Structures are given as C-alpha cells and as structure tokens.
Give the backbone structure.
Amino acid sequence: MLHMDIQQMLKERRLRATPARVATLDVLLSAGRALTHHEVEESLAAAGNRLDRVTLYRTLDFLVEEDLAHRLSGEDRTWRFSAQDKRSGHAHPHFCCSGCGATLCLGDLNPAMVVGLPEGYSFQQAELTIRGLCPACNHA
Amino acid sequence: MLHMDIQQMLKERRLRATPARVATLDVLLSAGRALTHHEVEESLAAAGNRLDRVTLYRTLDFLVEEDLAHRLSGEDRTWRFSAQDKRSGHAHPHFCCSGCGATLCLGDLNPAMVVGLPEGYSFQQAELTIRGLCPACNHA
DNA sequence: TATCCATATGCAACATTGTTGCACAAAATT
DNA sequence: AATTTTGTGCAACAATGTTGCATATGGATA
C-alpha cells in the first residue's frame, strides 16, 4: 500500500503518522500472513527502515491497541502480528504450519461452537488454531 | 494419587520411575488445571521436592513425549502442562482465564469443525482456546 | 512559518522463559 | 559388584519481551 494511504489511515483515526508506524503498518499489510516481531524487524531493515527493537515492540503494541493490527500467539511462544484480517473481533481461526511456523487467518468461526462452558465461567473470545502443513512444506 | 500408583504408571510403560518424574507427575495429576513450569517448580518445592530448573524442563518434556502429559500454549508465551486430559489427541479445547491465566481442558471438539482449509494445506491438529473469566475472577 | 508540548524514539539495562554442554550421580543390566 | 545407560545439577547462554530515562519529533498553536 502507498505510504500516503497508510498515513491517511492513521490520521483518520487521529493518530500520529510517524515513520515508524507507517513503515511497520506497510510491512504488515504487505505480508500475506502474520509476522513475528523479528520478521517485521528484518523486513523493515531490508526496506531501509531500521527501527530500534524496543520501538518496534511499542509500535506493534500501539497498532494492536488501536485495532489496526491483530496479535496472535503461536506454538513457539512468540507473538505474531497481522494487519490483514479485520474480521469479527471475537472469533479468530488461524492456520499454523508445523513445518515453518507460517501463520495465517482463515474464515469466520461459527459462534455456535462456543457453548458448553462449565457453570460459573464466562465467555469472552474464542480462538481456533489449526496446525498442519502449508503448501510449501507439504512438498518439501 | 499415591506415589506407588504413579510409579506403577511409569513402570507399565517401561519408563524409569525416578523421584523427579514421580513428584512432577504427582503435581500435575493433583492440579485441577494446566500448570506453568514455574507453578510446577513452586509446587514441588512446597512439597519438599525441590528440582533444578533444567531438570524440571527436561522432566516435563519427557512426560509430554511419553504422552503422560500435555503441553499447551497460552496467551502469555509460557507453556502450561497438564496430566489430566488424555482426551483424543487431535482436538484440544481449552479454557483460559483472562483474569488469572488459569487454563483447563474442556470436552471434546467436533471434528466437523475442522474443514475448509485452503487448497494445498494439510490438517494435523486443531486447538480451540476459549478466553473468558473463571468463577473466581468473575466475582473479583 | 516558528514555537511549544505531548508523545514517540533510541539506548541501556533488566526480566522471564527456555536451551545446551558437561561432569557427576543413580538406575538398570550383566 | 562392575558396567553401561540414563537422569540430574550446575553454569553459561539464547531468545523474547519490558522498563526507565534522555532526546528527538509530529502536529497543534500562535
């Protein structure tokens, strides 16, 4: 996406359109999948937008808080961030490749799934992660 | 559970019934929920069975490999271990409390849920995590 | 356009969680 | 009992994420 458009995205929400945010959002929007902090860092560096580690952590946190990105937990204890899916906020089905860790978002979940909590428990959110092999790892 | 019985569990599978394993398994079996490494460590120490951090990591890995325990990833980037549910290996619905992080296993998943992967992707396992509040946190 | 202030950034230090290598101890096997 | 195999503890390291603080900067205001 054009940086102009990304700046616009931020300004529409009355948020500061700093270079760090624009570049980070650009990386997330361009990726076809959820990226780790490290992957974002490398991607930024490759594009000549080197950011401090801490700044990137804070920028990613910021984007998540402002609902411009989505933080999801994988099987490898590292957060992954995605700006792709602005799907309904309460049900996030993901696919996670056992081969390479690639993570991406699938379609909506059927809320009917989320029933049968024990007495006294309250529901907030459901997350379904399907593990398997992505096309690349299927062939390897 | 009695230590005798736990030793039996291990020996039936031709595994060495070391004190570290028996004590760790005991802690996991007695807990009504999945425990973090740290929680297991504390629980062991409280029972006078202090274990080295590394030994505990390795013991937990061992139990998972031998299918005596189950490792699950939470929202806080730390593994949790449970010896409770020897439910079907391919679908693990969990409940995770947003208040205190307590994690426990719910009933079986309907495998029909796991359909609709994009072309080229292969299925291995599904994990559904429901977030919400446990009874204690609901009242607090 | 120049000034100013809230806030974003970078740096250093730290915290947490998990891993690796190696020497020693304990179990199992003979 | 001796030997082999495996488990344990210690030290050091690695990866991921956090906190405090000084400085730089975006964007509102004059």
Summary: Chain A touches chain B at residues 73-75, 77-79, 95, 98, 106-107, 110, 113-114, 116-135, 138 (CB under 8 Å). The helical segments of chain A are 3-12, 19-30, 37-46, 53-65, 135-139.
